[in-house]
């Protein structure tokens, strides 16, 4: 009877060789049928069918016009039809044949194909009922869980137990053509027979609950109590009554735990056909036929919570630890791992509790796995930095099977490298990947966290072709493993390439890169970029100068933020949690002479001088509280209170030793001697006077501090620089341009140079400004013209004071 | 300050606007002759400065005088601007002073 059906046509439908009746009118048999009502058209009943060509299956839908045929009994399960009008299309990645016209060749017929034998083996009733019952199981869910309890059968996608209704639950599994049956759950069937098409025989005593799985199909099923499942393929009957045996498709790497109530489903569809031998879990079962059907893998990027049964083939790019947690709902453990597939899609998968136990050992970074059936939920962006909106949660029904065959299409890791130069402009706290040459690395230090725990920290300098270098800090374990490796490489004179995946940009003296829990470091990776970097470095990078975007602590670095003095107040600088670091171009108007220094402790504390104020013991010695020692000679350090002015306003700042020396032109000790030891008032005054009205570029640290009840904004001079008029002018020009573009959009008639509230609009002032531009470089012989700052109304004294 | 005869900031290309008027500009000295100096303006045009060259040769020279043509000035005051001078900045100044911010100047 088999010759009547158009053999091999299902394959053609899948391959799209045949799409509709124009190509041919195949003769197929309905092996399953199920009615349902779609929510879109509740008034219409729709009928789904499983069509067979004797060896393969495909899902189909009958057009409403055909409903009467079914209702009248002319078209039923087993019927052989010729499809007179049909269309095979791809719906949600599955091929569905929508049939609008048929000719029923035979209404009642035995199922052709492998089913036959299987049926005979089991009890007939089972067979038939299983035919019918399959109707449901045979259908692929389009994202719906197939819970139908037609006639006491339950097909679940979920854990067992819930849908278990105890009795005979025969389920017929689609055979070897595999692809059409993406079945989910077969829940436990006590004593049910599940007969798969194919060559499996049923002689399974109903009591036993062995499970036989079709070969090749990755039936990763865990024990299910009581379902006899016979898979297609050659499994057969002589299955010794082993309770809860699990037979797995070869290669399945699922741990053979057989908790009783698990429903599993998933004859995963894919199988690279190399399973020659019996799977290890397959004990005492006969050989199984291989399921040669092509795998139905979907790309990771296509996964969404409504995907229903899915399978992905991906490589594990990172694996987290098995973490224990405790939350109001109780204790638990979890581990997660990241996956990457051939299309570059990435997603994180997490397993909890028992599932975690099950899969933890199995997952190895770098291996390829076929993973099916988990639930999808929105990704927790806080912890999950992969570029996917969802994350997978594996559950009891999920299956993981290792692919031993390498797939070069799936890379080991996917990077989205940014150049170090870009980091400077990127937002803090964003997660990036970066690759560069390690130019230097420092040893690990132990840092005490605020929580009281100690942790390791190690930093290195990374350079790349953008001409910038950045400080990369690694924490915790990374210090010891990769950190040590890098250290030895650097010590031996090499400059290794390092890739950092998933690190955070932090703002700390400029921009720096910091590792987080899920970051990964790779030393000397095998990547094209690594090669290029090495070549570049050898060629020019080694000797080229690098601009560091992570300034060292002492530099008090930040990118040169130019402000005017009035902006300090206007913009409330320093009032936020962190101090503001700014640069101002200002003139020293006044300096307090009373306390221009303090007596400092000269003792060395590590590699730095203590510098704490020492108290006079009265007998010529000085006591330091911090070092708890007395010294005979103290050091004198500057503590200058200066009043600065620019064209917008005035402010007081404090300058310490280094800046002080630059401003005064001599060390504090010398000045102290002039005043106190030599008592040379005149000389002293002369020096002080010279300082007044000197103009510098001041780098200030502005921070609000609370003295008693009152918070005041205090500014400290971190660095003092002589003004380079050329570059200064350029900065101003840029500011002008910026203002111009702003004006263009906002139509505010701002007068250009030196924005922010110039209070002195007199033309002479502008003249001064103009002159400012002229007088660049050296002022020789009177070219100075008596101006020199933006300030209004400067007294004559400053002329020549430059 | 003596503002009786204000001079406009010009570079080479702006000089033609002020022919017959007092201007000031800075040139980079290319060569000098008896009675004149040949200079390159900040926008790379050639300017002739009539008047005796300054006693010491310098790289940059500021000239204030009457613009006789679009590329020559009869110098009244010449000032040595030294060797470190940024012509680009000056050029920008000239453009701003004659364009958008003209009202600030003359």
Automatic annotation (TrEMBL), chain A:
Its signal peptide is none
Q: Which residues form the Replication protein A OB domain?
A: 420-523
> Where is this chain compositionally biased, Low complexity type?
249-285
> Record's Gene3D superfamilies?
Nucleic acid-binding proteins
Q: Where is the composition biased (Gly residues)?
A: 779-802
Q: Where is the composition biased (Polar residues)?
A: 123-139, 146-170, 178-200, 214-235, 756-776
Q: From the UniProt record, which GO molecular function terms apply?
A: DNA binding; zinc ion binding
Where in or outside the cell? Nucleus
Domain named Replication factor-A protein 1 N-terminal is located at 6-106
Q: What is this protein called?
A: Replication protein A subunit
Q: Which organism is it from?
A: Eruca vesicaria subsp. sativa (Garden rocket)
UniProtKB/TrEMBL annotation, chain B:
On whether Isomerase is a keyword of this UniProt record, the answer is: no
Checking Gene3D superfamilies in the record gives: Nucleic acid-binding proteins
- Keyword field contains Nucleus: yes
Keywords for the protein's UniProt record, in alphabetical order: Nucleus
Which terms in the GO cellular component ontology are assigned? Answer: nuclear lumen
TRAM domain ranges (all copies):
16-79
Membrane spanning stretches:
none
Q: Where in the cell is it found?
A: Nucleus
Family membership: Belongs to the replication factor A protein 3 family.
* Entry protein name: TRAM domain-containing protein
Organism listed in the record? Eruca vesicaria subsp. sativa
């Amino acid at each position: 009877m088999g010759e009547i059906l158009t053999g091999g046509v299902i394959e053609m439908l899948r391959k799209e060789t045949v799409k509709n009746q124009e190509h041919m009118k195949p003769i197929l048999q309905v092996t399953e049928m199920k009615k349902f009502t779609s929510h879109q058209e509740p008034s219409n009943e729709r009928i789904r069918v499983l069509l067979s060509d004797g060896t393969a299956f495909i899902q189909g839908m009958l057009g409403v016009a055909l409903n009467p045929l079914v209702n009248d009994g002319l078209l039923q399960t087993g019927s052989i039809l010729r499809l007179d009008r049909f269309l095979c299309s791809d719906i949600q990645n599955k091929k569905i044949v929508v049939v609008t016209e048929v000719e029923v060749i035979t209404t009642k017929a035995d199922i052709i194909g492998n089913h036959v034998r299987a049926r005979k083996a089991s009890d007939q009733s089972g067979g038939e009922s299983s035919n019918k019952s399959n109707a449901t199981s045979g259908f692929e869910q389009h994202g719906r869980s197939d819970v139908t309890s037609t006639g006491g059968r339950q097909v679940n996608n979920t854990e067992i137990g819930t849908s278990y209704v105890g009795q005979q639950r025969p389920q017929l599994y689609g055979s070897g053509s595999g692809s059409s049956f993406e079945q989910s759950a077969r829940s436990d069937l006590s004593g049910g027979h599940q007969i798969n098409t194919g060559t499996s025989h049923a002689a399974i005593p109903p009591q036993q609950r062995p499970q036989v799985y079709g070969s090749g199909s990755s039936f990763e099923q865990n024990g299910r109590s009581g379902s006899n499942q016979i898979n297609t393929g050659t499994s057969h009957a002589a299955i010794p009554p082993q309770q809860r045996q699990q037979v797995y498709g070869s290669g399945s790497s699922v741990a053979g735990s057989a908790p009783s109530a698990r429903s599993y489903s998933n004859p995963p569809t894919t199988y690279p056909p190399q399973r020659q031998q019996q799977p290890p879990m397959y004990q005492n079962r006969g050989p199984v036929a291989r399921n040669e059907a092509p795998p139905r893998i979907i790309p990771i990027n296509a996964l969404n919570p409504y995907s229903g049964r899915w399978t992905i083939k991906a490589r594990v790019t990172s694996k987290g630890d098995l973490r224990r947690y405790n939350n109001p709902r109780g204790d638990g453990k979890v581990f997660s791992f990241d996956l990457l597939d051939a299309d570059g899609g990435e997603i994180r998968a997490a397993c909890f509790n028992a599932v975690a136990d099950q899969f933890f050992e199995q997952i190895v970074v770098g291996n390829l796995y076929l993973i099916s059936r988990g639930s999808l939920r929105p990704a927790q962006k806080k912890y999950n930095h992969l570029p996917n909106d969802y994350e997978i949660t594996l559950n009891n029904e999920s299956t993981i099977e290792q692919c031993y065959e390498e797939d070069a299409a799936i890379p080991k890791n996917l990077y989205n490298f940014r150049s170090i130069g870009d980091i400077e402009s990127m937002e803090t706290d964003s997660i990036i990947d970066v690759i560069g040459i390690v130019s230097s690395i420092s040893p690990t230090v132990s840092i005490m966290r605020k929580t009281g725990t100690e942790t390791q920290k190690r930093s290195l300098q990374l350079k790349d072709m953008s001409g910038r270098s950045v400080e990369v800090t690694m924490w915790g374990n990374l210090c010891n493993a990769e950190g040590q490796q890098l250290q030895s490489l650097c010590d031996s004179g090499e400059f290794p390439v390092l890739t950092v995946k998933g690190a955070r940009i932090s703002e700390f003296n400029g921009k720096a890169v910091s590792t987080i829990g899920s970051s990964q470091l790779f030393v000397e990776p095998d990547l094209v970029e690594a090669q290029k970097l090495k070549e570049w470095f050898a060629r020019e990078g080694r000797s080229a100068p690098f601009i560091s975007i992570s300034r060292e602590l002492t530099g008090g670095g930040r990118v040169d933020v130019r402000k005017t003095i009035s902006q300090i107040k206007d913009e409330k600088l320093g009032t936020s949690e962190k101090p503001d670091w700014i640069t101002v171009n200002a003139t020293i108007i006044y300096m307090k002479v009373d306390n221009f220094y303090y007596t400092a402790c000269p003792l060395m504390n590590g590699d730095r001088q203590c510098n704490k104020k020492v108290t006079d013991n009265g007998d010529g010695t000085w006591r330091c509280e911090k070092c708890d020692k007395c010294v005979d000679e103290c050091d004198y350090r500057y503590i200058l209170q200066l009043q600065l002015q620019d064209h917008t306003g005035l402010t007081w700042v404090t300058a310490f030793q280094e800046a002080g020396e630059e401003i005064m032109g001599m060390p504090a000790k010398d000045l102290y001697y002039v005043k106190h030891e030599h008592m040379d008032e005149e000389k002293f005054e002369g020096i002080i006077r010279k300082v007044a009205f000197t103009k510098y570029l001041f780098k200030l640290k502005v921070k609000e501090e609370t003295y008693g009840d009152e918070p005041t904004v205090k500014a400290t001079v971190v660095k003092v620089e002589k003004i380079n008029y050329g570059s200064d002018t350029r900065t101003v020009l840029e500011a002008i341009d910026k203002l111009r573009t702003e004006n263009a959009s906002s139509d505010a008639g701002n007068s250009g140079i030196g924005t922010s509230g110039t209070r002195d609009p007199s033309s002479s002032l502008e003249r001064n400004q103009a002159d400012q531009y002229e007088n660049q470089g050296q002022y020789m012989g009177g070219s100075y013209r008596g101006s020199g700052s933006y300030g209004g109304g400067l007294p004559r004294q400053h002329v020549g004071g430059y | 300050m003596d503002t009786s005869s204000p001079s406009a900031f010009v570079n080479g290309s702006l000089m033609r606007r002020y022919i017959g008027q007092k201007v000031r500009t800075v040139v980079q000295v290319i060569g000098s002759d008896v009675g004149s100096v040949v200079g390159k303006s900040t926008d790379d045009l050639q300017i002739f400065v009539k008047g005796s060259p300054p006693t010491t040769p310098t790289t940059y020279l500021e000239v204030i005088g009457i613009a006789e043509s679009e590329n020559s000035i009869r110098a009244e005051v010449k000032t040595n601007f030294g060797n470190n001078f940024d012509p680009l900045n000056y050029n920008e100044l000239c453009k701003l002073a004659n364009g958008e911010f003209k009202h600030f100047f003359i």
